[in-house]
Amino acid sequence: MRNPFKDPTLSDRWFNRLVVGAVALGFLLLVAVGIVATSTILQNQHQARWVDHTYRVHRVIARFGVLEERLEAARRGYLLRDEPGLSTTFQDTAREIEPIVAELRRLSADNPRQQANVNDAAELAREHLRTLTHSVALVRQGRRAEAIASFNTDESLPLIRAIRKAANRMTAEEDRLLAIRDAEQRASLTLFFVTLTLAGVLLVIVASGSLWIIAHYTRSLTRSRDALRLLNEDLEGAVRERTIELQRANEEIQRFAYIVSHDLRSPLVNVTGFTAELETATKRLARMMDRIETQAPGLIDEEARLAAREDLPEAIGFIRSSTQKMDRLINAILRLSREGRRTITPEPLDMNALVQGVADMVRHRTDELGIEVTIQPGLPNIVSDRLAIEQILSNIVENAVKYLDPDRQGWIEIRGRTEGSRAVFEIADNGRGIDPKDHERIFDLFRRSGRQDRPGEGIGLAHTRALAYRLGGTINVESELGRGAIFRINLPVAFMVDQGTLA
Amino acid sequence: MNYHQPVNIILIEDDEGHARLIAKNIRRAGISNGIQHFTDGTSALAYLHEAPDGPTHNGPALILLDLNLPDMSGIDILGKIKAGSNPLKRTPVVVLTTTDDKIEIQRCYDLGCNVYITKPVNYESFADAIRQLGLFLSVIQVPDLPEADG
């Protein structure tokens, strides 16, 4: 199974970077295509304006040609019939020529070639106008015949032809520009469409790439989640298995302790029994010595007297105290093993009342020694085994009373809090304290710490820890020599039956 | 007729030392009845049921039984003796053992044990308990009277 918690491998990291880079590049390209498309459109608009301009020039050139023709026509008409209307038309048209030419000049300012054409046309137009104006003036003065004669000889006809040509040249020039501008506009339009197509293709690529990546990550996420769930279920199974193993080991130890303590007791009964027999016999012997000493002192030597009066009683005394101690130890092991086999019956406990009860049990001692016992109000209530909790607490409180520092006013404080699903109780005192190197040792069976000036076998704390483990809890100590101690009991807020497995 | 027959004391105990201490204290209490000592369950059961001078065929008895035996548990022996069909089921049995486990004590009483004595390491109380048996011996002869008459 692939481990979803493992660091991504080198190739994975490279792949991720590549993917991110590709997506970023795709989006950058899209932005670039957008910019190109925008600029193409702007350029296209610009070109359209120029095409428009060309058409305007076309119109103006046409207008110019029309005006010239109309001028010519008006003059001819006037030559034939002296009508004041015709003269007015001529005058009006002649006035329009100059602005048109100026307009042409202005419009063709960007094109020197057209400018030259315009200048030619303007020159011709001026010449033509002059000729015509002269002819019209002759008619107005009544010299019609002279005017008609000059009409046949003057330059107006070639001039009008030249003007037509000039207009054609200008138109041709504009046509040439129009062709160029049209081509340019078409090219930019093509560019725009190519860009658009490119953008479309890019969009499809980036979108499908992104979709693929999302799908890929979703797939691997799902895989990871499935693996995680599997692992979780495995973990629960592993814990259950381990719990069963521990319970079995625990039961074995309990049985072992029970058998050992039992079988140790049997020879001990003999030792104590025959020691008592010996004692009785020794007493008889001593009495016998007394009698002999009074009746026949010469029969007793010093060695026999010492043996009966001192050596034997001394030996018996040591055997007795040792067997008594051994009996206490065996009883302790028995008690522990029995405690380990006791069924835990969880029930809701009012911890304030329970702790008060524990404090009341040692009240006569604390009052006597002037120890101040404080119980923090509002201790967290838990669901656990009443007897076990009472034993744990009273053991620690009794220790606090027992190992008081006689040099200062003693105090004991019992406090508690919840931490998630755990309840933590602390029993703090200002007693003689425990050397940090003994912090683990004091929880071992038959091990004690510090001055051995108080009675005890080193059983209480071992018992306490075994009980705490059975309740699914832990117990530890925080202390320094001469600075008091804090015993901390961490218990589940609600005891589950398969939780007490570590006893 | 049984009235005149002395009660035999049958001691089933694998530990020689314990057996000796028990016997000594019985004598010290002024009891002179015969004591038969067995160190394993098999031979003890054989004697109880089959021996011509055993209790099944010959007179009343008091059984002192240790629970820890090499070949079987004293509880098994107790169960056999107190079984409904056993002719010895009315024979008083005193269980002597080192344990003071309440469950085990209860079990012995359930099976029909008459007295349960723990062997305390404190020898004086042990000796006392054994000497009390002297009183007990005089009591157990009483139920035999109507049987003798009948």
Could you explain the architecture of this structure?
The complex is a heterodimer of chains A (503) and B (150). Chain A folds into 3 domains: 10-222, Four Helix Bundle (Hemerythrin (Met), subunit A), CATH 1.20.120.1730; 248-340; 344-499, Heat Shock Protein 90. Chain A has helices at 10-80, 84-107, 112-140, 144-153, 156-295, 302-341, 351-361, 363-369, 386-402, 460-470, and strands at 346-349, 372-375, 382-385, 411-419, 422-429, 474-479, 485-492. By secondary structure, chain A is an alpha+beta fold. Chain A has a 5-stranded mixed sheet, with helices on one face. With 150 residues, chain B is an alpha/beta fold. Chain B has one domain (2-143): Rossmann fold, CATH 3.40.50. Chain B is built from 6 helices and 5 strands, in the order βαβαβαβαβαα. In chain B, strands 2-1-3-4-5 form a 5-stranded parallel sheet, sandwiched between helices. In chain B, helix 3 (74-81) links the parallel strand 3 and strand 4. In chain B, helix 1 (16-28) crosses helix 5 (123-140). The model of chain B is unreliable at 142-150 (pLDDT under 50).
At a glance:
Chain A has 503 residues and is α+β, with helices and mostly antiparallel strands. Chain A has helices at 10-80, 84-107, 112-140, 144-153, 156-295, 302-341, 351-361, 363-369, 386-402, 460-470; strands at 346-349, 372-375, 382-385, 411-419, 422-429, 474-479, 485-492. In chain A, the strands form two sheets. Chain A has a five-stranded mixed beta sheet, covered by helices on one side. A two-stranded antiparallel ribbon of chain A has the order 1-3.
Major beta sheet summary of chain B: 5 strands, parallel
- What radius of gyration of chain B results from the CA coordinates? 15 Å
Biggest sheet of chain A, in brief?
5 strands, mixed
- Shape, principal axes of CA atoms of chain A: rod-shaped
Given helix and strand content, the structural type of chain B is: alpha/beta
Helix percent band of chain A:
over 70%
In terms of per-residue confidence, which ranges of chain A show pLDDT below 50 for 5 or more consecutive residues? 1-6, 499-503
Nearest-integer average pLDDT of chain A: 85
Shape estimate of chain B: globular
Strand order of the largest sheet of chain A: 2-4-5-7-6
DSSP strand count of chain A: 7
- Neighbour order of strands in the largest sheet of chain B: 2-1-3-4-5
Mean pLDDT of chain B: 79
E-strand count of chain B: 5
Q: Span from first to last CA of chain B? A: 11 Å
